[in-house]
Description:
The complex is a heterotrimer. Chain B is an alpha+beta fold. Chain B has helices at about 5-15, 15-55, 125-135, 155-160, 195-205, 225-235, 240-285, 285-295, 300-335, 350-375, 380-385, and strands at about 55-60, 85, 100-115, 120-125, 140, 150, 165-170, 175-180, 190-195, 210, 210-215, 235-240.
Amino acid sequence: MAWDPEKYREKRERVLGIQKKGISFSIMAAIVSVTILLGLGAVTVPNAVSLWQTRHLDDAIYRLTAGYAWPDQTLAGIRGMSGIKKVTKDHHGGRLVITFDRRRTGPEKFDRFLKEQGLFFALLNRVNHRQHQQITAEEKEAKK
Amino acid sequence: MKLYNICLGNIKRRKTRMLFLALGLIIGIGTVVTLLSITESMSRDIEERLDQFGANIVMAPRMENLSLNYGGIDVGGVNYEVRELDQASLSRIHTIENAKNLGVIAPKILGPVTIMDKTLLLMGVVFEEELALKPWWQKTGAFPGADNELLLGSAAASLLNASPGSTLVMKEQSFKVSGVLDPTGGSEDNAVIAGLAPAQKILGKQGKISLVEISAFCRGCPITELTLQIAEKFPNAKVTAMKQAVMSKMQSIELFKSFSLGVSALVITIGALLVMVTMMGSVNQRTREIGIFRAIGFRQGHVMQIILLEALLLGIFGGLAGFVLGNGVARIIIPLTLEAGRFAGINWQLGGICLLLSAALSLLASLYPAFKAASLDPNLALRAL
Amino acid sequence: MKTVDHFIQVHDLVKTYADGAQLVTAVDQVNLSIDDGEFVTIMGQSGSGKSTLLSMLGALMRPTTGKVLVDSMDLYSLGKEQLADFRSEYIGFIFQSFQLIPYLTVLENVKLPMAVTILKKKTRQDMAMAVIDRVGLADKHDRLPDQLSGGEQERVAVARAIVNRPPLILADEPTGNLDSDTAAQIMALLESLNRDGHTIVVVTHNPETEAYASRNIRVKDGRVAV
Lengths: 144, 385, 226
C-alpha cells in the first residue's frame, strides 16, 4: 500500500509545531514554595533575632528634680560608660532614658555619675527594655 | 482523564504508602502546633492576671535590699530599718498631669503582730478603697464596719482557730472578727486585716504608710506614663506598675516561643528531608510506571507534574493531619504540665499557615525526585522487572 | 535524491552499547521500509536485537547512527518534547507484561494516553468505552488489573494502544506470556485492527504468529536477513 503524505498531515503538524507552554508547572511550584517559605521566615525570624539581641537590656528612667534640662555633657558622659546601649531624652526633655546591658552596669553607677555631675535627680523606674518599648507602643496606639 | 486523576488513583489505592510519606510532615507540623498552643496558653494565663491586676500601680518606700513579701516590703525579724511613707504626703498624688486617670488609691500599713503567741502579718487598710480595688475578695461573715472589727485571711483564721464572731486580742485591745476571707492565693491569706488608723496605732506607726496600691481609671491607659508621673512626685518611693511585674513573665514566654519556633523549624526540616528521601524511594519503585507514561507520549514535564501534584496533595494532607494532631496533643498536655493551664482553643490562622508551610515544603522536597523521575530513560524503565 | 516514499523508512540504523568493558552491537546497519497499512512481524531469537529495533522505531531509543523516518519526519532530529508528542500522536505500544498501571481501573488505564490531550471529558469517555468494547471488555471496565486474567490484561493494553487512533501499533512479544488459545485471540484482534487501517509491527520469537502478517522480517545478530 503506498503511503499518502496527506493522510496524517494534522498529526504531523501537531508534532512538529512549537509548543507554547508559558511557565512550566514545576517552575511555578518551585517559585510559589520558595515565596511562601521566605514570607514565613521574614515574619518570624526578625522578631526572634531582636528578642535575642535585647534580652540583656534594661531601661532606667531618671528625672531632674532641680534644674531645667539635662546637660548635653552629662549625656555624652553616660554614653561613654561601658555597657550603655542608648541614652535618650523623653517627655519634653524632662526625663532621661538610659538603655543599658544589665550584666555590665546598672543604676548604682549612673547614680554615682550623676551625683558627681552635681545634679539633683530621681530614678523613676527601671524596666526591661523590650517590654518598655512594647508597652509604650501599645499605649501610643490606644491613645490614638 | 487528567493528570491529577492519576495522582488521586494512586493515593486512593495506596493509602498506607501515602501516610508513611506524609509522616515526617505530620510530625513536624504537629510539633509546631503543640508548642505554639502551649505558649498561647501561657500567654492567656498572663493576660488574665493582667486583667485582674492590670491597672494597678504599687508605690512603696525605696529600699536598699528587697525581699519579697507584700509588694516588696520586708516585714519583721530583719535587722535593718524599715522605712515608711508619710500618709499626709499622699495628697500630692492628685497633682500629677494625668490625675483624672486615677481611680482607687488604697494605702496600707504593714507590720508584725503577736496574737495568742503567734506572730502574724497585720494589714491596716482603708476598707472602702481596698474593697473597691479587690472585688474578688469573697468572705464568710461581713466586712468590718467599726474600728474594733477585723477581717482574717483564710490561713490566718485557721492558724488562730478563729471564725466570724471570735474575739482576738492585739496589744491588749480586743477586736471582734467580723469575717474570714476565702483563699485568694495572695498575701492577704496570711494576714490579719484591720482599719488603717487602728492598725497604725497598734504598730506604733501613726501617720505612716507601708505601701499604696493605686488603680487607674480606664482601659488602655498610659500606665507607664502614670507610673512615671507618680514617681516624680514621690522621689523617695519606688513606683511599679503591676503590669511590669507580670510582663516580665511574658519575656520568658516569648523566649520560649522563639525557642519553640526554632525547634519546630528543625523538626519540619527533618520532616521535609524525610519526604524527599521517601519520594525518591517511591520514584525508584515506580520506574516501570514512569516508563509506561513516557512510552505512551507523556513529556518529561508531564511526569514531573504527576510527582509534584502528588507532593502537593501530600503536603495538604500532612498540614491538616499535623494541625489536628498538634491540637489534640496540646489539649491533653496543657492541663497536665501547666498549673491552671487551659487549652487556648484552635487557632485557625495557624491552621492556614500550617497548610501553606506543609504544601510548600512538600513541593520543594519533591522537586529533585520529580526531576529524577522525568529524566529516566524510558527503555531502562520498561525493562526493569 | 533521497525521496520519502514509504510510511516508515529506516536507513543504516546502528545501535551499540557498552556491556562492561565490551562494546556490543545490538543493531547493525539495518535498512528497511514499511508501508502504511502493512502487518509486519519481526522474528528472531532473544538477543537478536529485534526489541532494540522496535524501540528505535517507536522513538524510545536513540540510535548510535542512522535515520528513522516516519511520515516523512526524521525522528531523531526532533527535540525531546517533540519525540514525546510523536509517540502520543503516532504510536500505540503493546508490551509483553506488567504494562498496566496497577492502581487505575481498566477504563482509567485506557484513558491514560488522553490525559495529555485537550479533548473534552465526554469525548474521552466515549472514545475509551468504544475501544474497550472493541476488545470485548465492556463489562469489566471498572475492574483493577489484578482482577483480570493475563489475556484480559493484554486486551486492555491493546485498547489503550489504540484509543488515540495512532497510525502505528508496535507490539513487543504481546503473546509471550499467554497460552496458545489466548494468544490466538490477541493475534486475531491485531489482525482486525489492521483491517481497520492501523499499521502493525509485531516483534516475536513465536513462529505461529507469522501467519497473521502480510510480511515477515527475520533478524539475526542485529542484521536483517534477506
